[in-house]
Amino acid sequence: MPSRKGKYTVELQTKPAVLSFASVVGKKEYEGPYGRYYDKNYNDTTLGEKSWEKAESRLQNEAVNIALRKANLKNSDIDCIFAGDLLNQCISSTFGLKGLNIPFLGQFGACSTMAQTMAVASLFVESGAAKKAVAVTSSHFCSAERQFRYPLEYGGQRTPTAQWTATAAGSVTIGTRNENLNAKVGISSVTFGRITDYGIKDVNNMGAAMAPAAAGTLLDFFRDTGTGPLDYDLILTGDLGKVGSDLLEQLTRADHVDIAPVHNDCGLMIYDREKQDVHAGGSGCGCSAAILCSPILQQMEAGRLHRVVFIGTGALMSPTSSQQGETIPCVAHLVYLTA
């Protein structure tokens, strides 16, 4: 059974196993540095569908189905699926997964959703509430821009702090360790973050808004576990981009913790910032999902990474709150993976 370790961290005694994982991406993501790692890619932003929203639903559906096939599992083998995305009422998840006939628990953590769904799925497996569960999320550049910023046809300039929402999805299948002894990656603990709000209102500066949440959760994890950065092979944040990553490292150094030697960010990894014109980097639920469910977990299974701290970061605003001039509250959730 799960147990508390410190104030904010939950230790998973059985270390639920990562049975399989999969990623599906768009053209721009495939052309980035990790293109060869993804399971499937598309050259058309519509993925052959009638709308960008339907295309995003298809990203999720395919990511789940590929992950299940890789584990030789059927839909009926899964006890529950945890899924979310950026669109109103998480419609990418509901429309994309409605045909799977798997008990569904919708999640919203903005760009922290991959970490949130994995953490909750792991707790279900650890507690015995599920033998096998799926965590999945997605984002799509065109659908997100239309909802949160401007219609693409508007052609507005993007500020240097802006990030590019990834057209991507990632899925992880999680099962009990005692039934899957050959699984190479396990989930050792999770730390759920608290909402932070540093008063930032600029929707084109997500990195600065989310960095304090990432710093808070990471420092909570270090205090709870009595560890430091060099106890891990990689501290991987989700979607802070260049601005947010620099700020995160400044914030942790102010607390006498230097994460720079082992820190990387999915928003910096998914694109080539020199060649792909993404300004401060990548963002969106699918950004960290695709990076985690491709190069990171692949390297863990290959034995090149052993201890990975994955922190999903999310900006919890909506079009309504932004239009009403509200600030951007943020949250970060942490999953500690071991191989």
Blueprint (SSEs and pairs):
Blueprint (H helix, E strand, L loop, with lengths): L2 E3 L3 E3 L5 E9 L1 H4 L9 E2 L10 H19 L9 E5 L6 H7 L6 E3 L6 H15 L4 E8 L1 H8 L15 E2 L2 E8 L10 E6 L14 H20 L8 E4 L3 H14 L8 E3 H4 L12 E2 L1 H17 L5 E9 L3 H5 L6 E9 L1
Parallel strand pairs: 3-4, 5-6, 5-7, 8-13, 11-12, 11-14
Antiparallel strand pairs: 1-2, 2-10, 3-9, 7-9, 10-15, 14-15
Molecular structure report:
This protein starts with a strand and ends with a strand. The chain has helices at residues 27-30, 52-70, 91-97, 113-127, 141-148, 206-225, 241-254, 266-269, 285-301, 319-323; strands spanning 3-5, 9-11, 17-25, 40-41, 80-84, 104-106, 132-139, 164-165, 168-175, 186-191, 234-237, 263-265, 282-283, 307-315, 330-338. It contains ten helices and 15 strands. It is α/β, with parallel strands linked by helices. The longest helix has 20 residues, at 206-225. The protein has a seven-stranded mixed β-sheet with strand order 1-2-10-15-14-11-12, with helices on both faces. A six-stranded mixed β-sheet has the order 4-3-9-7-5-6, sandwiched between helices.
- Sheet/helix structural class: alpha/beta
Number of domains: 2
| Percent of residues in β-strands | 15-25%
Q: Between the first and last Cα atoms, what is the distance in angstroms?
A: 20 Å
**Count of extended strands:** 15
Shape: globular
The quaternary organization reads as: single chain
How large is the radius of gyration? 18 Å
Q: Unreliable stretches, pLDDT < 50, 5 or more residues? A: none
Task: Describe the main β-sheet briefly.
Answer: 7 strands, mixed
Which CATH class of the largest domain?
A: Alpha Beta
CATH-scheme architecture of the largest domain: 3-Layer(aba) Sandwich
